Amino acid sequence: MFSGPRLRQSFRRPQAWFVTLFCAWWVLLAVFYLFPGIDIAVAQSFFHPIDCGANTVAGRICGSFAYSSEGILIALRKFFFYLPVVVAIVILMLLLENLQHHGATYDAGKTRRYSIALTAFLLGPYVLVNLILKTISGRSRPYNTDLFGGTEFFTAAGTFHGSCVNNCSFISGEAASAGWLVCLVVLLPARLRPVVGPPLLLLCLVPASLRLSFGGHYLSDVILGFLSSAVVYAGVASYFEMTQTQKKHR
């Protein structure tokens, strides 16, 4: 068993974070897979049903996710949609600026931290989420399913046999990008992380909440998307640390 100090010491290394977050991701996926009613209930709380009228097919559900038509919320979503890309460009510029230094002015630590952040952004929200999972998951978005006025059928998280063929619901790319922004707290000095971390986390929950209220994603898509970036970030950091250790022992 780990004592308190030893446990805290172990979590100063990215490997411990990676294993913990990776396991947590799969546990959450199992919960949403076994209890799909959680996703349906949360989506229903944002759905506003209406009378379909006399000429509608029996059993059809009519209505909409009303928040998706609110102008201020649409503008807010666009802001958060592009924010991670802007931040990634800024980090890239900082990396390039640091690489121009030589000798005593060169900061190897900055190069490592910026490289981890950019690699995690590319491998997480872009490759893992948008290029792979959203292409092969087959999960239809809430507003496309017959539960919420659409024509496609609902599938539980992790089933991979839905009717969606591209840009599917599992998992949320925007939530993954927001999760990556939260991970950037590690770029700050240690003394600032407890101060900046909590408000940054709350701020980055906004785009995730918008995807829920718009009917664009289920709760599982949002939570697993958000957490996926933390898993990838910790995994990339672990890889960088292992390669650095190997170089020192050569």
From TrEMBL:
Q: Does the keyword Transmembrane helix apply?
A: yes
Q: Which residues form a coiled coil?
A: none
Which Gene3D superfamilies does the entry mention? Phosphatidic acid phosphatase type 2/haloperoxidase (1.20.144.10)
Top-rank taxon: Bacteria
Q: Name one Pfam family in it.
A: PAP2
**Signal sequence region:** none
Task: Supply the InterPro entries for this chain.
Answer: PAP2/HPO (IPR000326), PAP2/HPO_sf (IPR036938)
Q: Where is the Phosphatidic acid phosphatase type 2/haloperoxidase domain?
A: 116-237
Listed A to Z, the keywords are: Membrane, Transmembrane, Transmembrane helix
- Which residues span the membrane? 16-35, 79-96, 116-133, 170-188, 222-240
Q: What is this protein called?
A: Phosphatase PAP2 family protein
